[in-house]
């Protein structure tokens, strides 16, 4: 009897007697069962598996997409749910499904049993045709389900980006490095960050999400500086991934909170690069106003008043060394812009800060007056600020202030340049500026991330060096604040990006256009800053880089300039 397969005949035993000859139906039922059982033991029965199509390139829950998820709880359902490719896809004939029969029911008729046995033998013979195809050996149901699960299970996924609490790395519990080893970083992890930013910029969300899956595993807020940087940048990229149009999942309110304000003040105190920016401003102000009887300082961000506590002590020390010299009368005017999103951070506490500064001045026998004015940039003028032209020496203090004033990339009115022009119109003796040396204002998204990696990577390393003896929560709070800054600077767009730093060259152009010219920082200022660094932070990784003609001082960690201080008039 023909098998229905070209070139094959079914089981003739030969032409001899004893019922051995003839076709399949001339053998007894017992012989057929025994023969087929032996065949089952000798053959490796294989279930064909098709190459997985693209449906198994899992989408990791981006936007409205959902993750494919499977479990091993129902192996039969899993097998039936696998996509079956058409014969045209693989160029192979479509094979019938394999029918597994463990035993033949005794109550079936011989014809029915024969039909089933014939079908089973036919499929067993069919199995010999494709020896080269990949296959999975038949085994127990549990083994089969386990193999299927291994095949289809995706790698661990990122938390759903639609939930900001789970899609970002929490910095609320940041603390100095733990003794536990951190997870290994992927090779060229920084390059992977840049590739992810490029993929996001090009709209390739699958590639970006796949990279973030690996990077998030390595991010560790309790690891070394590189692991912490990875945590910060992964958070920024996740924010961008979650809100590709708006560009930020962290509201500006995070940067206006009392916690962030406190973290910023701690940063100014803990980091040599920031602290020396304030020290340079004080030194430049006092150098420009020496021997002046009345000094009026306009300040657009008094903060907690730490800079003025140091200034008062320096004035008191000068008076001690020159007892015949009359103490100058110092007036500080704190300016609040009611249109600024940061006005309410410390406005309610500003009066208390002024009271503390005045009490400190009284203790050191320094005459000091403190007042607060609320003015928009367009309202700034000598009269509105209470300036006494010709009666006092006016200076303006702007350390780490201008980078938060919107520029031309945010508003056509360009409040940043307008502020500088109005300050110049006051004709101050000196304007002191300090800013971070990084372009997060006009640089496009991938370039901002590259800049941020270099800048914040060095900054985190410098904090590790500066706070080696610090085991308390202060450093953790500082780094949590840095993370919020970095996320806003990297992931934000438009008015939502308020961390808009610029490099020294751009500040020089702005100051020049506003009518200012640079003031060299004299040798007394430069040497005092270098001496302060050597005495307070002796780590050789911290250096002071002097610009040509002492027109600016850069404060660097491992030759990477992080902040720059300069003076203008």
From TrEMBL:
Family: Belongs to the GRAS family.
Source species, domain of life: Eukaryota
Region (Leucine repeat II (LRII)): 352-384
InterPro entries: TF_GRAS
GO biological process: regulation of DNA-templated transcription
GO CC annotation, single: nucleus
Stretch list, region SAW: 491-569
Comp. bias regions, Low complexity: 159-177
Motif (VHIID): 295-299
Gene Ontology molecular function, alphabetical: DNA-binding transcription factor activity; sequence-specific DNA binding
Protein's name according to its UniProt entry: (wild Malaysian banana) hypothetical protein
Region of interest (Disordered), ranges: 159-189
Residue ranges, compositional bias (Pro residues): 178-187
Keyword set, alphabetical order: Transcription, Transcription regulation
């Amino acid at each position: 009897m023909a098998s229905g397969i070209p070139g094959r005949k079914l089981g003739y035993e030969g032409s001899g007697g004893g019922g051995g000859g003839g076709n399949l139906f001339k053998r007894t039922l017992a012989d057929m069962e025994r023969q087929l059982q032996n065949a089952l033991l000798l053959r490796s029965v294989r279930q064909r598996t098709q190459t997985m199509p693209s449906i198994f390139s899992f989408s990791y829950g981006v936007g409205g997409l959902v993750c494919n998820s499977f479990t091993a709880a129902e192996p039969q359902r899993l097998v039936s749910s696998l996509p079956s490719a058409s014969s045209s896809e693989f160029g192979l004939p479509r094979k019938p499904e394999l029918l597994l029969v463990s035993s033949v029911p005794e109550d079936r008729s011989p014809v029915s049993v024969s039909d089933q046995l014939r079908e089973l033998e036919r499929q067993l013979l069919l199995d010999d045709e494709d020896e080269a195809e990949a296959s999975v050996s038949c085994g127990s149901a549990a083994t089969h389900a386990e193999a299927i699960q291994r095949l289809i299970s995706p790698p661990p996924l990122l938390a759903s980006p639609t939930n900001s609490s789970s899609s970002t790395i929490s910095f609320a519990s940041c603390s100095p490095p733990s003794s536990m080893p951190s997870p290994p970083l992927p090779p060229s992890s920084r390059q992977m960050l840049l590739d992810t930013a490029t993929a996001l910029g090009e709209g390739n969300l699958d590639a970006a999400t796949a990279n973030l899956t690996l990077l998030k595993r390595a991010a560790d807020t309790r690891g070394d500086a590189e692991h912490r940087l990875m945590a910060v940048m992964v958070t920024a990229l996740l924010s961008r991934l979650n809100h590709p149009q708006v560009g930020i999942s962290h509201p500006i309110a995070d940067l206006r909170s009392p916690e962030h304000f406190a973290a910023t003040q701690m940063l100014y105190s803990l980091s040599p690069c920031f602290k020396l920016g304030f020290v340079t401003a004080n030194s430049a102000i006092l150098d420009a106003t020496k021997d002046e009887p009345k000094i009026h300082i306009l300040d657009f961000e008094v903060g907690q008043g730490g800079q003025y506590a140091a200034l008062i002590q320096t004035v008191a020390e000068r008076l001690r060394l020159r007892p015949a010299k009359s103490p100058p009368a110092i007036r500080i005017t704190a300016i609040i812009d009611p249109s600024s999103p940061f006005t309410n951070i410390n406005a309610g506490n500003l009066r208390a800060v002024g009271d503390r500064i005045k009490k400190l001045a009284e203790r050191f026998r320094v005459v000091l007056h403190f007042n607060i004015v609320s003015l928009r940039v367009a309202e700034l003028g000598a009269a509105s600020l209470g300036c006494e032209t010709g009666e006092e020496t006016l200076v303006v203090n702007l350390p780490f202030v201008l980078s938060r004033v919107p520029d031309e990339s945010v508003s056509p009115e360009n409040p940043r340049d307008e502020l500088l022009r109005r300050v110049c119109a006051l004709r101050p003796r000196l304007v002191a500026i300090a800013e971070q040396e990084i372009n997060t204002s006009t640089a496009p998204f991938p370039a901002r991330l590259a800049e941020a990696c270099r800048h914040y990577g060095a900054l985190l390393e410098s904090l590790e060096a500066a706070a080696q003896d610090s085991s308390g929560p202060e450093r953790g709070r500082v780094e949590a604040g840095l993370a919020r800054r970095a996320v806003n600077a990297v992931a934000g767009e438009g008015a939502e990006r308020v961390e808009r730093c610029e490099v020294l060259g751009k500040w020089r152009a702005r100051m020049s256009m506003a009518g200012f010219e640079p003031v060299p920082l004299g040798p007394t200022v430069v040497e005092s800053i270098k001496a302060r660094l050597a005495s307070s932070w002796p780590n050789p990784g911290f250096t002071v880089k002097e610009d040509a003609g002492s027109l600016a001082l850069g404060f660097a960690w491992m030759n990477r300039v992080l902040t720059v201080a300069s003076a203008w008039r």
